[in-house]
Amino acid sequence: MTRTTLSAARVSFALIIAAAIGLAGLALNGPLRADGHQDAASESDVVIESDMALPADAAWKHSFDVYEAEAGEESRVLATALRFAKAMEDEGIAQERVKLGLVIHGPSVFDVASDARYAAKHGTGSTAYETNPNAAVVAELVERGAEIWVCGVAAKYHKVGNADLLPGVKMAPSGTVAHAELQRRGFGMNPY
User: Fold this and answer.
1) CA–CA separation, 108 vs 127, rounded Å?
2) Strands of 188-189's sheet, edge to edge?
3) How confident is the prediction for the chain on average, in pLDDT?
4) Of 22, 74, 96, 175, whose CB count within 10 A is highest?
5) Does this model's pTM top 0.85?
């Protein structure tokens, strides 16, 4: 083994050990929420009182970019959008004053597809998913008035047509056009 190869091996080993220690630390410190923050139950001795004033008569327009998807799993971003809406309600903001826009593209087009289309994509092999685990979250978002736009380019690529979409989900020419239209109408973009 050359000196360079040996040094690279030592660095790789050190990185693996550091990652293992980090994961062990996370496990010991308690569960993490989908947004990466520690579960509030493990921090019950901490009191948080917001200093931010949110006027009850204001309107909020907030959009989310949804790309990541994992077969059989609830979409982290769809869940985050719903949590945001509920958090605003917890702060005394009426549901009709919080407008949500979601732009779905890439493999996440299946997260807003009917059970039949979801099963056609993920219903085979050793892990078969016959129902879309995102259907309830999507239905609640739609019920709250969220605009859920699917990138037409991604939909065409993944062979997900308008008829395959869950109720209330709409098709846009592209994800870029959907984002541009939401921004034109004053929607801010969630940074994470």
Assistant:
1) 18
2) 169-172, 147-151, 98-104, 60-66, 188-189
3) 83
4) 175
5) no
Q: Tell me the residue length of the chain.
A: 192
CA distance 61 to 188: 6
pLDDT in tens, 77-124: 999 999 999 999 999 999 999 999 999 999 999 999 999 999 999 876
Nearest to 104 by CA among 169, 35, 187: 169
Give just the sign of the alpha carbon dihedral 55, 60, 64, 70: positive
DSSP, res 90: H
| DSSP H/E element including 100 | strand 98-104
Q: What is the identity of the amino acid at 134?
A: N
Residue 21 has pLDDT above 80, yes or no: no
